[in-house]
């Protein structure tokens, strides 16, 4: 069945092989069909570092057939022992040479004679390494309830690491079915993409069992997975008949219940949304102790960090619950969008990740409407994407990639957050009904095959009758986004708007003759009904005029209600002044209050308005009740506070923060009240943490009191108060506080608690203690994937921390780079430690450090950091004095 199916799907295959790193199609074989049998002998103690495996690939030659005596495959860190080719009905030919091209992660198998035309099978025996690098087939350490250290063996193949587990054609468009067999110690369990079809004693060694899994559907190598270890699970059946299991560490099955509930609700939701059923008989979700990403969507066996899957009703906080729901929603969406229909090449990675990052919110909104998750999208993804995409060193959503390091590099906020944001804009432009129609057509047309961005546009275009490709190309093929400049005039009962676009640059306006243009869907609302779009236009040129009829002169006009369009807005002074009262009196929607503030903040950073103007707008938020609005405001104040830590009036901005957050802090108090919900819990944590960090006396005292009781075992802190309390006591703490915190860390049974502590340790002020925290980050106490957030926490906490963390990264570069093997965690580390400086010469230093210390997967991140440093420096030079004067003047007694 698969052979013909694959042929029809391979309309673009052989692939457009422009990049050296891709498999060259001129070399035999093109693999229209590949069957892999893996027999992995996993050593009894689980401590073995290598494994023996056999692989059998069944292949058919391409048409037109090229005569050759070579087979080229992807392969990395693998020793091939023997390889042979058996032509159908012919004699076995042994390969006589294995030519490893390590740089390209390939091997060429050389045969003594030309391989005969027709199909045949390729047999390979090889030894692989069970590595400690959290990629390929690797070891993950865990401690048994009795305190013994053991290892699980797990896989992480995306993007290009299946080739580290077995030789293969490791490209998303080279799909195949997989038959997997694992030979494992009999007291362990083995999981893979499919269900187990046979488990029997292994004849050669009775301490082992042979576990055979059902044949997978045709799929890409990066989605193959297997896990061997000791786990407990909880199980349920979704309403559409899929068996769902959540695997947890032994003894913690209860902690899988929340995710199980989300997953069983989510599967039918997607089935209904896509009008396509989940295609496998089962899905497992499993928590892996050592795990680089947040989670990975392996088909039928989704792997997660423990903190992205496990929830303990008593010890998990509201934000963890929300995170688990989002991650489960994200990975399950990939089961359709990504796994069933796969991107043709990594250039279209954004489609996978952008789409999943959008629909995870739709899913959580369905499961937990009380989370008001779409407003949180704007603060978490939309504004983050705008900030990054305003840099000269951003990149288009669709980007040419070849080498694995280039692929690693695009797992960034452009692919995820900008991708999700432009899909949200598109969904809004098309409307839900036609969007779903188009999605359904796309999934049906390309199921079990590969697709590109254009394919999706074509389906959506047909479903909606709108010019989707033309609109979307302007957002995905060119980097950046526009700033929409708006002015108005009242003509009788009409309002005439002049709307124009130009590229928004983080460094301020430029007179660029070749200014790009976007096709911008623009919605407009008025104060008559701020939640209702009064008019829609598609701005497809540099400027236009829009006439709004029947509007009273004293009514305001707002562009982009719902903050859906991916652009910033610059209003004329009168328009802005008319909008601002809507912040104070809350007549603007929360998402629009947030969007307005965020636009102004970024305009200030770009030097287009004064930062003092933004501080005045921020003061209008004193009555703000909404968590997400506060959260975004708090984030921007954090940025400003970090900037002003370079000045000698840092304390004045702390006072500003205290004044702004005190009324809401008083209103909320410390203890939750009956009837409060998820968002109240989040808001209380945010506000108390902010007040505590900024040195609000009463908050600090209460935090210390509660911390003491917590430590003494008198009164355990509720989970939602722990982060703010820990942060507050550390920020104003000494070596005893740090000792206590490290003790709590050691005692913590849940990874969530450990992470909670790790993230705030950097707040400790004394330089020698900062150093202790940095050393702790690289110690055995911290999981390798969490080191980054400990160091990042130090860098983000204070001026001293920033310097110390950067020095620490430089001093320990070898170890850090080696630890992450240049993966995306290294980019994250660089961003967290280098981004916050605000002196020109630091940009030069960062640049020169990475010229001599290569981090190929982080090249763009380094450039972005340098650009940010220069922007910070310019901002400080431009506005510091005015900010200082404003902060002094607002304290002065009125005359
Ligand atoms: N496919 C990714 C996992 C991944 C990330 C693999 C980077 C290789 C490199 C997965 O679907 C994902 O996006 N995970 C996110 C979590 C998600 C909720 C945004 C992650 O790991 O951060
Ligand atoms: Zn994803």
From TrEMBL:
Binds 1 zinc ion per subunit. The record marks 416 as: Transition state stabilizer. It is an enzyme of class 3 (hydrolase). Residues 556-869 form the ERAP1-like C-terminal domain. SUPFAM superfamilies: Leukotriene A4 hydrolase N-terminal domain, Metalloproteases ('zincins'), catalytic domain. The keyword Lyase does not apply. GO terms for molecular function: alanyl aminopeptidase activity; metalloaminopeptidase activity; peptide binding; zinc ion binding. Its cofactor is Zn(2+). GO terms for cellular component: cytosol; extracellular space; membrane; nucleus. Residues 258-475 form the Peptidase M1 membrane alanine aminopeptidase domain. Keywords: Aminopeptidase, Cytoplasm, Hydrolase, Metal-binding, Metalloprotease, Nitration, Nucleus, Protease, Zinc. It holds the Pfam family Peptidase_M1_N. Its EC number is 3.4.11.-. Monomer. Belongs to the peptidase M1 family. This is Aminopeptidase. It comes from Cyprinus carpio (Common carp).
